[in-house]
Amino acid sequence: xxxxxxxxxxxxxxxxxxxxxxxxxxxxxxxxxxxxxxxxxxxxxxxxxxxxxxxxxxxxxxxxxxxxxxxxxxxxxxxxxxxxxxxxxxxxxxxxxxxxxxxxxxxxxxxxxxxxxxxxxxxxxxxxxxxxxxxxxxxxxxxxxxxxxxxxxxxxxxxxxxxxxxxxxxxxxxxxxxxxxxxxxxxxxxxxxxxxxxxxxxxxxxxxxxxxxxxxxxxxxxxxxxxxxxxxxxxxxxxxxxxxxxxxxxxxxxxxxxxxxxxxxxxxxxxxxxxxxxxxxxxxxxxxxxxxxxxxxxxxxxxxxxxxxxxxxxxxxxxxxxxxxxxxxxxxxxxxxxxxxxxxxxxxx
Length: 349
Hints:
six-stranded mixed beta sheet; 21% strand
């Protein structure tokens, strides 16, 4: 007997727009293809209706772009015939009839732009906004959260800290009524790979090349090496999980560029290796936060976090030491965070 109409699963097709088509969004597209059957079981069908990069410009087709052609960099011919090419993000979203924006442009730690404008445009256009970019959280979290609520849309960002590990959703959906006192951890993969490589005998330059080959470091890795990426992650955790609108300049920041190779190797030989440690703690004066190289004794689990691995310890009023670790993740982990946000967004609205 066929299922009654009331029991039939409602299937909806969502138009997805990818802003930035580097490693993250390309990996996301491949993951979407791999997870097609699981998504369909949840009533979700998708198509890529827009892709935008500096090189190709704004490409939109509400009927869908060919994923295989996208991944082979053959996309420009897929725009809808007879339709003028969009000239900005708002026109692009409109022509694509976007339901969801995946924002994966490069981090601008000092102002979060243009990612903030991209996300604002998506929410105002009635699309969910999902980002792997930390800048908008640090510089416009409260505004974008309020705008998403007003529009009945979702602004989600699970991939911004520790790839796709569900930190933000863990606190939002499961650790209810928890009061976060502070945290400490290792949150930047590039500096971790560099320090690990130097300890093994590589030069700083060789270790940086290794991080770039792994896909965790940009061509210009200064944001990582000087501690900006880690500081932005600290600020994001404080703003979202501790509900404190801390400014980036309030976080004491020091990168690893002043460490010599000999000093790094000697510290490891002495059993207290250097790590770029992130810290935040509530005090009577507010939240005190820092990012700086610290020598960590081998008795501390942070000392054993190497390569692309990450760790964070949360101190709460209920759990005095709640640790989350991630062992050498790849780009799939970042892409998974965005995919999980996609499922949350469309199933909760």
